[in-house]
Amino acid sequence: xxxxxxxxxxxxxxxxxxxHFEEQPDDPSRLRALTAAGPVPFAEYLAGFDIIxxxxxxDCHDYAVDHSPSHLWNSATxxxxxxxxxxxxxxxxxxxx
Length: 97
What we know:
2 domains; 2 helices; single chain; 4 strands; alpha+beta; four-stranded mixed β-sheet
């Protein structure tokens, strides 16, 4: 978990690892991860992982909320419902059906 806060909260899950990032001094629109080996370009740092769950940049100037989990949930719920509808009457009729 990467944060721009100087003092981050404790890891929310035992397996979560907290890290920090900052804006590059010469170009604040570019970010870099702060690692034990020194600063690393943010994209390069993220490319070292197989799975990235959620990426939202939030600071005093930018605020973003990722609604994709809600959209994905709604989409999956719709698709599952559509797939089950043809069998609903049979299921509701019970074992004799």
